[in-house]
Every structure is written in C-alpha cells, then in structure tokens.
UniProtKB/TrEMBL annotation:
This is Beta-crystallin A1. InterPro entries: Beta/Gamma-Crystallin, Beta/gamma_crystallin, G_crystallin-like. It holds the Pfam family Crystall. It comes from the Eukaryota. GO terms for biological process: visual perception. Crystallins are the dominant structural components of the vertebrate eye lens. SUPFAM superfamilies: gamma-Crystallin-like. Transmembrane segments: none annotated. Keywords: Repeat. Residues 54-100 form the Beta/gamma crystallin 'Greek key' domain. GO terms for molecular function: structural constituent of eye lens. Belongs to the beta/gamma-crystallin family.
Amino acid sequence: MALTNPMSMPMGPWKITVYDQEHFQGRRCEFTACCQNIMEYGMETVRSLKVECGAWVGFEHSTFNGQQFILEKGDYPCWEAWSGNNAYRIERLISFRPIYSAMHSDSRMMLFDCENMTGKQWEVCNDYPSLQGMGWCNNE
C-alpha cells in the first residue's frame, strides 16, 4: 500500500486540538485530518496543542513547509514542549498533518547472511527487538 498522497487518505484514529495562545488558552480548533494553513480556520498561529490520538507532524509554515516537529500523544503547552533544545527556535506552527503508516502485517523482508543475496536467508514479517533474538548470529 503506497502512501504517496496523505491528502487523499481516509479518516483514521487521529485527533489534535490546537490553541492560538500558550497553555491551552484562546481560540481552539479540533482536527482529525490535515490542516494546510491554520489561518483558513480563523487562527493566526498555533501556540499550544494537545495530541489526543495518533501521531502528527507540525510545520513552521503553511502547506507543510519549513521546520517540522513530530508530535506524539500528549500536551504541548508552549513552543518549548515541541521544539525542545532545538537551536532553531519555532514559537508557532501553521500547518500539520497526521502520520500515516502502512499495514505492517502485510510487510515482509528477506535477510541474507552473505553478499549479493546469497547464503542462508530469513523472512522477517514481525517486529523483532534484535537480530540475535531471532537467531541471526547463531552459526548452526
């Protein structure tokens, strides 16, 4: 399943509430899909937000441009909460969109123990904490 155009993706388990002032004050809007420009919703900027469901990417400028920040579930009362110790200080966000992921249950990967896809091979179709845990380093 290719995820090339997030604007055409179906509704999913995403929800974000954004505020135009710090500490969840002022005007607010809730979204369950992409927002290319918060100004289209009567807000000048996003100064605080709450990610209630799913993961999102927040952008410095409209149409998903500029510095970007990964926003996981939780409260972001001010810019330091999403910007952290980043030397590039962003005090506001203008656009944001949910992070879409593929159906991992349909994913598969082949690993080979020699160059040029030769030697012993393993098919990986689940999450594994380490290659050793799945027997990769055993010389049997």
